[in-house]
Amino acid sequence: MGPAVPLPEKLLKAVQRALPRWNRRRCATLAGELSTLWWGLRTAVLLDTCSLEEDEAAALGTALQAVQKNVFVAYEPVSGQTLALDNPPTSFHALLTSLSAHSPSSPSPCLTLPSPDHPTNLIPLVGFLLDYPVAYYLSHERGGRNCLGGEELVVTEAELVEPGETRQRLLAFSYPARLAKSISSEATAKALEDKLRARLASGITIHPELRGCRIDVAQRNVTLDQVAL
């Protein structure tokens, strides 16, 4: 699913400067992942379609912060995960030591897990940063490659839709349907939709290419044989 709106040229050039060995197509793919953060529609993006090494993540953070100072890149070496983030809210600093130490002079902090032998500890942090209303992980005793296989899941997906009906996924997440007993799936989807629509309205004032776009949020229940947490 490609971008619904043309890529910001300034963003694409920043990616190309940071990663000169990458071809234009690969840079455009990465810029596409970053575009929703650039427009202010997301607070964080997990860069999972283009794998980066630690030095590449650092170069990307420097290049992005040169053109948009509120954006930085965080790399976690145990899992190899790279996150591009907007500056976190003040209340978040007290929760996360690694991110609270971040300053404008450090465009690419390296996250430190309290228990490196349990990289699943990163899951709720990443879910929180990525705007997932429900962030969870199973206990280490229940872990495994297919710990949710055969279990009913609630899947929520948010998309940016341009006037020609081209769609760009903003985020998608799932959680066990049994958690819906303690939370309202409908209220969760509505709150997410309201948040993204408010960000779109704000983003349009800065990025006119977003005019005419809308936010769609949909939910469905699925049961899969294989599920990767």
Automatic annotation (TrEMBL):
UniProt xrefs under Pfam families: DUF4504 (PF14953)
PANTHER family membership: UPF0739 PROTEIN C1ORF74 (PTHR31366)
Protein name: Uncharacterized protein
